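Components:
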Amino acid sequence: MAYETLLIDQRDRVVVITLNRPQALNALNSTVMHELADALASMERDAGVGAVVLTGSEKAFAAGADIKEMQSLNFVDAYTGDFIGGWDKIAGFRKPIIAAVSGFALGGGCELAMMCDFIIASKTAKFGQPEITLGIIPGMGGSQRLTRAVGKAKAMDLCLTGRMMDAAEAESAGLVARVVDAERLLDEAVEAAAKIASFSLPAVLMAKEAVNRSFEQTLAEGLRFERRLFHSLFATEDQKEGMGAFVEKRKPQFRNK
Ligand SMILES: CCCCCCCCCCCCC[C@H](O)CC(=O)SCCNC(=O)CCNC(=O)[C@H](O)C(C)(C)COP(=O)(O)OP(=O)(O)OC[C@H]1O[C@@H](n2cnc3c(N)ncnc32)[C@H](O)[C@@H]1OP(=O)(O)O
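Structure:
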């Protein structure tokens, strides 16, 4: 399917989605978010897709919500229409999705990257929640996911001052999984996605679900949840294939069963 604001590139079992509004530093408007939700829904259904990489341009992953489009919004319309309430379904994408961030990931752009499973950043990446400079606060999870990722002190610093942090600071704070040279960014992300897509899909989906569940419940409940998923994988052919391949000193061929 052709999109107005996205470029889609499938490489074996990995799909690369590139945000494509360079004229506005990939500012997230309603078209982008509807097209992204549509593309992810399609990939969720497509058995040929094992993992997704979401990226932008060298200058900007996404510079936030489209301020020009949002400027005239009013409280009643935002509240009664639950403005941006539907976008959390992007965070509900069940397959693995990696954010490959170069340049600016600000406001909704940082929030979108945090909805992905992990972030690989180029050395040029800059992250922030500058909403306070516009007279608002983060509205798509910035105050919640950033605090869980980097802790109260740095999240409060970024949300109250609106400052940016560079890739090195973001990695040391725990927001970013890896930092690479800009020219390596997409290859690194696609290689990581391809490796994940080579594993057993039920195990990959359960690993993602278990990690995400740690934000939603007590440690005791989370340990029980994890253990039940662990038990269930011993009912899969892939568990037998994976452990059999190790014992026989050969590469496993997972069949997602
Ligand atoms: C009814 C609304 C429908 C929207 C529905 C879909 C929304 C989905 C996401 C919602 C998320 C909402 C919650 C979120 O927390 C709120 C936000 O994200 S608020 C925005 C936060 N971001 C910012 O404040 C960053 C704004 N940009 C900048 O500070 C600077 O552009 C920069 C990133 C520091 C780069 O500076 P420069 O290098 O100098 O480049 P320019 O400033 O000249 O920008 C180039 C060009 O891009 C346009 N542009 C940049 N950012 C945005 C933006 N966020 N929105 C719209 N346009 C943007 C800029 O205007 C320039 O365009 P030009 O003027 O040349 O036409």
